[in-house]
Amino acid sequence: MKTRSMVAVAALVLVAAASWTITLEETPMKVTFLSNPITDKLNLPFSEAVRVGDLLYLSGQLGNTPGTLTLMPGGIGPETRQTMENIKAALERHGSSMDRVVKCTVFLADMKDWPAMNEAYRSYFGKMPPARSTIGTSGLALGARVEIECIAAI
Questions:
Q1: Domains defined along the chain, listed by start
Q2: Contact present, 146 and 106 (Cβ < 8 Å)
């Protein structure tokens, strides 16, 4: 009897699932390529951010002093803090903020820097940090120790 009930429930679930129809209207999303007048002078081959609908895709940020290609000295901690400050400034420049970040990808030149990077990174997000991936690399632009890209809601 128990087996028949389980089969009947499974059949009902399949019928219910088969009768659901989800219709998605195709609406063209506006795509806006965003720049920064300060970094435009550096003639880099990418946009600072791209807005698609209500999402902001921020290009990878390094721990460079704004407007220069000079990395913050002092190792992974100061470099990560500068990277996060650069992210914060870019988000604010384009209508978002740190509390609207939904996903970050961290690239580390050396995975041994993971604990120190985490210490600096953690201080920029409250009790609800965004989803995150961390990837070890064999090198980063300008000899950086860390690069972080983000996706944020606007």
A1: 29-153 (3.30.1330.40)
A2: yes
What pTM, to 2 d.p., does this model score?
0.80
Nearest to 150 by CA among 82, 81, 97: 97
pLDDT recorded at residue 67:
87
Rounded distance, CA 44 to CA 116, Å?
Answer: 29
Contact, 107 vs 59, CB < 8 A? no
User: Which pLDDT score is estimated for 77?
Assistant: 97
Instruction: Write out the DSSP string of 30-80.
Output: PEEEE--HHHHTTT-SS-SEEEETTEEEEEEE-SBPTTSSPBPSSSHHHHH
Q: Please tell me the distance from the alpha carbon of residue 10 to that of residue 150, in angstroms, as a whole number.
A: 42
* pLDDT value of residue 9: 37
Q: 3-state SS of the chain: helix, strand, coil percent to 5?
A: 40, 25, 35
Mean per-residue pLDDT for 15-33?
A: 61
